[in-house]
Write the structure tokens for this entry.
Amino acid sequence: MSDTISQALFERARAVIPGGVNSPVRAFRAVGGNPVFIARAKGARVFGEDGSEYVDYVGSWGPALLGHAHPDVIRAVQEAAEGGLSFGAPTSREVRFAEAVRALYPGIEKLRCVSSGTEATMSAIRVARGFTRRDVIVKFEGCYHGHADHLLVKAGSGLATFGVPDSAGVPEGTAKTTLTLAFNDIPALEALFAARGGEIAAVIVEPVVGNMGCVPPEPGFLEAILSLCRKHGAISIFDEVMTGCRLARGGAQERYGLRADLTTLGKIIGGGMPLAAYGGREDVMNVVAPLGPVYQAGTLSGNPVAVAAGLATIERLVPEVYEKVEKLGAALEAGFKDAAAKAGVPATVQRVGSMITLFFNDKPVRSWAEASQSDTKRFAAWHAGMLSRGIYWPPSQYEAAFLSAAHTDEDITRTVEAARASLG
Ligand code: PMP
């Protein structure tokens, strides 16, 4: 249970904001109790309005790979802000930013800045449709790609959490052009392409899923997407809003040695500011206005303050960051496994680098059908136990937790101890 200050704030919030939150999962509904209202954050810690302190594994849902309020990033933001908050005109900073992102992703020859992951995926889909002159898109059950109409079909994240995978308010005609398959199901993908390959504009995928909890791709799955797209003239889109710059500097594509036609990025590349991007093959990106017929625009796109935070963050993505989170992640994974085994609780720990999920499920989770078998009641009880012990874990079974370079060995020890006690 949360503190009385947060409770009072939540009551006020609910009177003016639907559900009291500006993004659904924040409401803590899936785990019961009230959300903690955060006053500030530093490193691997978040601090509640009542002064309470937590070891944070939400990391702003992904951006905080370097830890919160990294001094260099804050300084870059302050300096940029002094020069004006927004111009709606090109800047040298955004050119440097685009060059820095391109240097990380060999598949990105050209890119556009937008302000959220939703805009990035929505725009990438439009570009793929405009380029191929086809309408059908393929996504995988349990993957979340933001809240654009045609992507809210069998989606993960909050939709999975609240059991409304298909949002109301999406016209039937729109939803019809989105076909869904089970993640990791290569035969189903092959069959779909065999039947309707000529209609498919794009396949969009979270290369490592975070939005149904952490679910890695089985060997060959991502490769099958790339090769089937190539064979049938469809565009492959790796949605690396979450995995980008997290699983490696060059995201899942670097980690697995792959290259998609289009890539969407967000979260880490904005260093905690509203900044995202989509980009990829030059011939495909050249359909974007003013060069081509696909329209996409934004008053705040390439915002100078956001871009400054992003650049400062990208410049600090050194190999040591990834070595550290890998080591911390391995320790956390081993600790959770041991704790669950000793407590006799059916559990599966899945991790790729700094993304980790403790599924209350006795079997490995490879798809939404398997993820949805998890014991969410048990997760809720465990989550409450963790929170009461000062661990701020994502408040849903169907969200990955994130490690940062600011976490320490002591944090991991403390978290494993809390997990042990909370499983009891
Ligand atoms: N794609 C993925 C893979 C995501 O994880 C998210 C957000 N969690 C989005 C897209 C949407 O990004 P945003 O919330 O910035 O709109």
Notes: DSSP finds 15 helices and 14 strands in the chain. Residues 72 and 312 are 7 Å apart (CA to CA). The domain at 4-69+318-423 is CATH 3.90.1150.10 (Aspartate Aminotransferase, domain 1). The chain has a mean pLDDT of 97.
